[in-house]
Amino acid sequence: MTSTRPSRPSGAGARRRAARPSPRRPVAVVAVVVAVVALALVAALAAGSGDDADTSSPAAGGDRPEAAAGIRVRGAALPPLPDDGRDPAVGRPLPAMSGTTLDGDRLTVPTRGRPAIVLFVAHWCPHCQAEVPLVQRWVDGGGLPAGVDLATVSTAVDPRRPNYPPGAWLTEEGWTAPVLTDDGDQAGARAAGVTAFPYFVAVDAAGDVIGRASGELSTAQLDDLAATLAREAS
């Protein structure tokens, strides 16, 4: 099924793809003041939003050890990312998400004082399966600047769907970023306003959103995102 998206600026590259999560209760949209410094990043991320969506609905997967602890969320949930590219979450704080990583470490995302990219993935999403190795190659090649964090939230877990369990999948891909696992309620995904997978949230050193995108991002788009966050880290 194809959803309607705004036209991209020239040079945006191939159409990005995304997979849709199951519908969730709506979150009230709050008007925000968008900082001028964030406009370039918002445009770059909007250019990466997904066109084609897998509309099959994942079931909650809170019955497995990885999801047992879940994620504790502190802060007001962000509104869902709209289709028109004008993100009402820009300038708002990303709710703090705390939990235990797949390696057994305690982690809170985002880390205060450090800009970050938070990537939400679903193990059954073919676009996540394409994006995860691309992002890892980008990280291995030095694409992630010093002082900028990359964290992952595994969500929409469903043992009946492909590529389960997600921890084994990410390990097989050589994924090096820490991974929090959402519980069956998908509290982390709802807090970030996730609308499709893969889903990127970029935050500044204060933890405020400077851009979100759904769908596969190219290496060039990741480079642009990293350059903006590197300025935040300096």
Please outline what is shown here.
This protein has 234 residues and is an alpha/beta fold. Helix content is 24%, strand content 19%.
Topology record:
Elements: E1 17-19, H1 39-46, E2 52-54, H2 65-68, E3 72-74, E4 96-100, E5 106-109, E6 116-121, H3 126-140, E7 149-154, H4 166-172, E8 179-181, H5 187-192, E9 199-203, E10 209-214, H6 219-233
Parallel strand pairs: 1-2, 6-7, 7-8
Antiparallel strand pairs: 3-4, 4-5, 6-9, 9-10
Describe the structure.
- The protein has 234 residues and is α/β, with parallel strands linked by helices.
- Helices cover 24% and strands 19% of the residues.
- The protein is built from six helices and ten strands; from the N terminus they run βαβαββββαβαβαββα.
- It has helices at residues 39-46, 65-68, 126-140, 166-172, 187-192, 219-233, and strands spanning 17-19, 52-54, 72-74, 96-100, 106-109, 116-121, 149-154, 179-181, 199-203, 209-214.
- The strands form three sheets. A five-stranded mixed sheet has the order 8-7-6-9-10. The protein has a three-stranded antiparallel sheet with strand order 3-4-5.
- The chain is globular.
